[in-house]
């Protein structure tokens, strides 16, 4: 999938907000904070206000650095958001929505007054979308709470997205889920152990 922008640019205010989040959460890179921000904004059910964007800071992030190992998920999520809200799907409109979501998401994260990465991870674990598709197995009906969830493999996601019709895409939403890195889990355990002593 084509990059939405070649380089991410920021206002001085947004740059300061990113630094604030980095200091409080100890996330090592600006790109990771930006991914959190845009995903948090896309999870909201409202279109960002069309305020003029001023790119007056010296902070820039290349597209490749920004997407990291997420591949086409973020561009697909922005396009899906535009489809769901019946926004124009030309490249300029998608770029505009991307920039607005990026700025809004970072502002939202700052507004949450996060005190650590644990709170940020908690945001990702909250399910804001509709309940996932669940198939019950007939042999398990008498047994309470025995269900299996339907899972789409990441490797087949892109091919499934390309074969869907526009009506099917409009009816579905993309849910972004993060995995907690082992380093974060280990740091959390060390913190809990040090508090006991």
Q: What's this entry about, in short?
A:
By secondary structure, the protein is mainly α.
Account of the protein in words:
- This protein starts with 6 loop residues before the first strand and ends with a helix.
- The chain is mainly alpha-helical.
- The longest helix has 21 residues, at about 90-110.
- Mean pLDDT is about 75; it is low at about 130-160.
- A two-stranded antiparallel ribbon has the order 1-2. A two-stranded antiparallel sheet has the order 3-4.
- It has helices at about 10-25, 30-45, 65, 75-85, 90-110, 115-125, 155-165, 165-170, 180-195; strands at about 5-10, 60, 135, 150.
- α1 crosses α5 (about 90-110), α2 (about 30-45) runs parallel beside α4 and α2 (about 30-45) crosses α5 (about 90-110).
- The protein has 9 helices and 4 strands; from the N terminus they run βααβααααββααα.
What is the first-to-last residue Cα distance? 51 Å
Mean of all residue-level pLDDT scores = 75
- Indicate the radius of gyration in whole angstroms: 19 Å
β-strand amount: 5-15%
Shape: globular
Describe the main β-sheet briefly: 2 strands, antiparallel
**Total DSSP helices:** 9
Helix content: 40-55%
- Main structural class: mainly alpha
Q: Which spans have pLDDT < 50 for at least 5 consecutive residues?
A: 130-158
Q: What is the succession of H and E elements?
A: EHHEHHHHEEHHH
Count every beta strand, where a strand is a DSSP E run of 2 or more residues.
4
Strand order of the largest sheet: 1-2
């Amino acid at each position: 999938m084509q990059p939405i922008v070649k380089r991410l640019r920021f206002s001085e205010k947004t740059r300061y907000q990113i630094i604030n989040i980095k200091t409080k959460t100890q996330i090592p890179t600006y790109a990771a904070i930006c991914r959190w921000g845009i995903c948090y904004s896309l999870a909201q059910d409202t279109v960002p206000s069309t305020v003029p964007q001023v790119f007056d800071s010296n902070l820039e992030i290349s597209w490749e650095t920004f997407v990291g190992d997420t591949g086409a998920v973020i561009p697909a999520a922005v396009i899906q958001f535009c489809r769901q809200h019946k926004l124009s799907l030309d490249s300029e409109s998608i770029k505009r929505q991307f920039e607005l979501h990026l700025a809004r998401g970072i502002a939202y994260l700052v507004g949450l007054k996060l005190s650590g990465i644990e709170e940020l991870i908690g945001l990702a674990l909250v399910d804001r979308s509709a309940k996932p598709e669940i198939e019950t197995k007939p042999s398990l009906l008498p047994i309470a709470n025995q269900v299996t969830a339907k899972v789409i493999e990441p490797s087949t996601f892109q091919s499934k997205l390309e074969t869907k019709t526009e009506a099917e895409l409009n009816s579905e939403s993309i849910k972004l889920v993060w995995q907690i890195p082992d380093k974060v889990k280990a740091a959390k355990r060390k913190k809990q152990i040090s508090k006991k002593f």
